[in-house]
Amino acid sequence: MQGIIRNSVSMSRHILNHHIKPGDLAIDATCGRGQDTLFLARLVGKTGRVFAFDIQGQAIHSTYCLVRKQGWLDVVVMIKDDHSNMADHLSGNTPKACVFNLGYMPEGDHDIITTPHSTISALKNSLDILAADGVVSLVFYTGHPGGQEEYEAINDYVSGLSQSKFTVLKLEFINQINSPPGLILIHKFSEDKR
User: Which tens digit of pLDDT belongs to each residue from 42-88?
Assistant: First the structure.
């Protein structure tokens, strides 16, 4: 169990590993350095597809180099656009999972961060297009400027989601210092549970 609860990314990946199957479609809403994109590509396999979004050309390039080096380039579609526009690029396809790793790109410009407005818009879009029994994973960071405001906006939004359509789980590390990342998981039911 210790490896699973090591950090929010590990927890997210543990859930996704048991949820995504070969042939599925997944979205990396904030591809950054490409680690989540590569993880998703391995889960969906050669018959699946991963759409990776980022507004930064540096992130798209970094992701491209990583997935090419690892042999997954034919599975990944990289799109330089705001994640709030994800639905415009999917041609009606329904993803089984959508992953958000919020904040700023590791080793990137700390002034370029995800924002409450764009993230809430992207989250709404992801829930609309998500397949039945799909999962959205949001790793959030409160320790950088703007991070707390983004987390509060997300928390307010997901707290209001209908419990007949979604289950929302929030995980936070309560004995850690330096504002460790937290995790919000949203499961979309396969049918209305009213």
Answer: 999 999 999 999 999 999 999 999 999 999 999 999 999 999 999 99
The domains located in the chain, with CATH, are: 8-188 (3.40.50.150)
Long-range contacts of 70-74 (CB under 8 A, 24+ apart): 70/38, 70/41, 72/38, 72/41, 72/42, 74/46
Structure tokens belonging to residue 92: 């009606």
Count CB neighbours of 188 within 10 A.
Answer: 19
Mutual angle of helices 35-44 and 57-69, in 10-degree steps: 40
Quick: pLDDT tens for 97-134.
Answer: 999 998 876 777 777 778 888 999 999 999 999 999 99
| CA dist 102 → 17, 77, 143, 182, 192 (Å) | 20, 20, 12, 10, 29
89-128 as b/e: b if 16+ CB within 10 A: ebeeeebbbbbbbbbbbeebeeeebbbbebbbbbbebbbe
pTM of the model: 0.92
The angle formed by the CA atoms of residues 155, 186 and 134, to the nearest 5 degrees, is 155
Output the six-digit token pair for 88: 């415009």
